Amino acid sequence: MTTPHPDHDRGLEFDLSTLLSRRRSLGLLFGAGTAAALAACTPGTGGGSASPSSTATASATATATETTTAAASPSASATSTVTRAFAECGVEIPEETLGPYPGDGSNGPNVLEASGVVRRDIRSSFGTSTTKAEGVPLTVTLTLLDNANGCAPLAGAAVYAWHCDKDGKYSLYDSGLENENYLRGVQEADANGQLTFSTIYPGAYNGRWPHIHFEVFESMSNTTAAGQVLTVSQIALTEKACKEVYATAGYESSAKNFPNTTLTSDNVFGDDGGIYQLATMSGSVAGGYTAALNVTV
């Protein structure tokens, strides 16, 4: 696909001080995961970052429900109420497709071999380019929970996250962006199973509800090892936040595309309306948004 950047020769092994081995392909993975359901999300902490909290983990193991508004039709006024269960043991995040633009070596370029991919702020490209993706700020916090261990925090696990820019385009793949690798990054979960990415609000493109892709690995050392993915899934963003963001300058194409696909017609979230992958969100266009999700694996 794209000729590797010269600065990426030593890859992720350099970032982790020889902790990681070279990645091959994730093509052999699928069949290991099972689709199941996950639960509602840990509330974000606001501002530019989210900090770990014992409260987040406790809420993840509680049996409770909440209602949330999700898009049910292209109409701006048409919404439906769905019930979302807080994460509980035995309820895992649904397994989803990587999509055509993973950048993990399974379909063309492999950003996971690049030095610099381990980072919290994923807004800029790294390596030979420093182009920064512009858009409304978004802070994403995931809380990883171990289903086989009573939903204990999955400390030390790693997440690779990626998503499109404000125009619905993907770095490494779309025309003119082949030499960019922004909006992609890897983070390690802390003792509370939490990790955070600083990014921008993704755009909307036809056929998909606004979303963020992610892969969960057992450890940082497995992020470049074939067959070591625990799960592959996606985060669904809320209708309210999408409408607010897409009404702003710079998101004109998203404003046109967003009404064309609903959570129930989306080819990924449509089977259940995204109730187990819908982030808990807060914030504003002026101050930026936070999105949080509990991920039980």
What does the model show?
This protein has 297 residues and is mainly beta. It has one domain: Aromatic compound dioxygenase (Protocatechuate 3,4-Dioxygenase, subunit A, Sandwich), CATH 2.60.130. Helix content is 9%, strand content 24%. The protein has 4 helices and 11 strands; from the N terminus they run ααβββββββββααββ. Strands 3, 4, 7, 10 and 11 form a 5-stranded mixed beta sheet that branches. The protein has a 4-stranded antiparallel beta sheet with strand order 6-5-8-9, with no helix packed on it. The chain has a two-stranded antiparallel ribbon with strand order 1-2. β3 (137-146) and β4 (152-153) form a beta hairpin. Residues 1-87 have low confidence and may be disordered. Residues 43-62 are annotated as: Disordered. It holds the Pfam family Dioxygenase_C. Keywords: Dioxygenase, Oxidoreductase. It comes from Paenarthrobacter aurescens (strain TC1). InterPro entries: Intradiol_dOase_C, Intradiol_dOase_core, TAT_signal.
Write out key terms for the chains shown:
single chain, 297 residues, mainly beta, Protocatechuate 3,4-Dioxygenase, subunit A, 5-stranded mixed β-sheet, 4-stranded antiparallel β-sheet, 4 helices, 9% helix, disordered N terminus
Secondary-structure topology with pairs:
Layout: H1 11-15, H2 54-61, E1 65-71, E2 79-85, E3 137-146, E4 152-153, E5 158-162, E6 184-188, E7 194-200, E8 211-217, E9 229-236, H3 239-246, H4 252-257, E10 280-284, E11 288-296
Parallel strand pairs: 3-11
Antiparallel strand pairs: 1-2, 3-4, 3-7, 5-6, 5-8, 8-9, 10-11
